[in-house]
Design goal:
The protein is of the alpha/beta class. Helices cover 34% and strands 24% of the residues. The longest helix has 20 residues.
């Protein structure tokens, strides 16, 4: 895959990773891209520098447009290795280039590549001229490292957004509308839930900084570039930032002999009757990325566990840290589970979740061994009651939305 023209004077020159299947614990079944962008005016700038092993691809793509030695500026929006790994190769090919980063980025690159290069700091609102084009820098700390920034080209209306608005998708198509906007948006949601949601306050500040810009294209560091569908993308991001919960429930459970699974199935029916869309995940089969993406805007999350040695079934308890990733304590949680000769899992789950700061329903549902017809009815009724409880809690849902 060679260089792809995005706008007059701007090219994608990054690399595709067809084999990537995990990123920071996030499942990436569709692979990913490491996006670098070449901006060519009277002077030449390269924005970000891909992973180390993709450096040769980056330089080959640049060479289709200009001799890499012509690069005047290398801009580091983010120093994480998937953005900066090939810096040494780039700066060897462009020995006269000036390396620019945020003030914090200078520190991070200095830590990662000690004493290798002189790095110049750029501040919020600083700009460089490339002649007929210019690049302006927007500090966006904690998205998702302390040093990240965005770069803006006002003459072409292109926002090089770094990690925000990105998605892990490997494709030969460079634009979201070519891949399929709904398809890309689904992966963008997963990416947000896993990597950006914990920093919603920082994302809200970044969005306010860019709100007045006449954006015609958003070029993230991973996945397709957005041109058509921008209005939808920005509206969805607003909803995600504000944690506008949806009328859905997510059930997360483990089951040793099927009793808790049957409970989950019956509770799902009751939740559906109560007006909520429902998805259920067995923690021993589901990928945490899917559960996080589904649950972070769910009105209620239900967690089910059989009793194991008077406590929580270990695969269920081991899953709870994954729920911390979006750092959303506004969600409502209910617990349920089966037991044999002794109980304990449900109450222990309540204690764990309350200690995490979640709003936990006071009424756990427990059933001995396998639910019979009457118990299945109780499970359905429990689902309906939890749906009613979650709807009644709507007024509380936004209290911690951007904290």
């Amino acid at each position: 895959m060679g260089a792809v023209k995005m706008a007059e004077g701007i090219w994608w020159v990054g690399a595709i990773d067809w084999e990537l299947r995990g990123f920071h614990g996030l499942a990436t079944p569709e692979g990913s891209t490491y996006n670098s962008y070449l901006v060519v005016g009277d002077k030449v700038a390269l924005i970000d520098a891909v992973k180390t092993d993709a450096g040769a691809t980056l330089l080959r793509n640049v060479s289709e447009i200009v001799d890499p030695a012509r690069i005047d500026y290398v801009i580091s929006n983010h120093s994480e290795p998937d953005h900066s790994g090939a810096l040494a190769q780039v700066l060897e090919a462009a020995p006269d280039a000036r390396l620019l980063a945020s003030k914090e980025g200078v520190k991070r690159l200095g830590d990662m590549f000690p004493s290798q290069w002189e790095i110049e700091a750029v501040g919020d609102g600083d700009r460089i001229s490339l002649g007929n084009l210019s690049l302006h820098f927007i500090n966006t700390p904690l998205l998702h490292w302390p040093e990240t920034m965005m770069t803006w080209c006002p003459e072409r209306g292109v926002l090089f957004s770094c990690d925000p608005y990105g998605a892990h998708i490997a494709t030969t198509e460079r634009f979201a509308d070519e891949v399929g906007i709904d398809y890309v948006l689904a992966y963008t949601r997963t990416y947000f839930a896993y990597l950006i949601a914990a920093y919603r306050s920082a994302m809200k500040k970044a969005a306010s900084k860019t709100a007045s810009l006449d954006i015609k294209m958003i070029a993230p560091s991973h996945g397709p570039i957005w041109r058509d569908g921008l209005k939808l993308l920005l509206e969805e991001y607003r909803r995600w930032i504000e944690l506008e919960l949806e009328d859905r429930a997510t059930i997360i459970y483990g089951s040793m002999w099927g009793g808790t699974r049957k409970m989950a199935e019956a509770i799902a029916e009751g939740l559906k009757d109560g007006g909520l869309d429902v998805r259920a995940f067995n923690v021993e089969l589901a990928d945490p990325s899917d559960v996080i993406a589904e649950s972070f805007l769910s009105r209620v999350v239900l967690i089910g566990s059989p009793t194991f040695e008077s406590g929580v079934y270990p695969p269920v308890e081991a899953f709870i840290p994954w729920l911390r990733i979006p750092r959303d304590k506004s969600r409502q949680v209910a617990v349920f589970g089966s037991f044999g000769w002794s109980g304990g899992a449900a109450r222990r789950l309540q204690d764990i979740l309350r200690s995490e700061g979640y709003r936990v329903n006071d009424e756990p549902l427990t059933i001995r061994f396998f639910p019979d017809a009457d118990a299945v009815g109780h499970c359905r009724e429990y689902g309906r009651r939890i749906a009613e409880w979650s709807q009644g809690e709507r007024g509380e849902e936004a209290k911690t939305a951007a904290e």
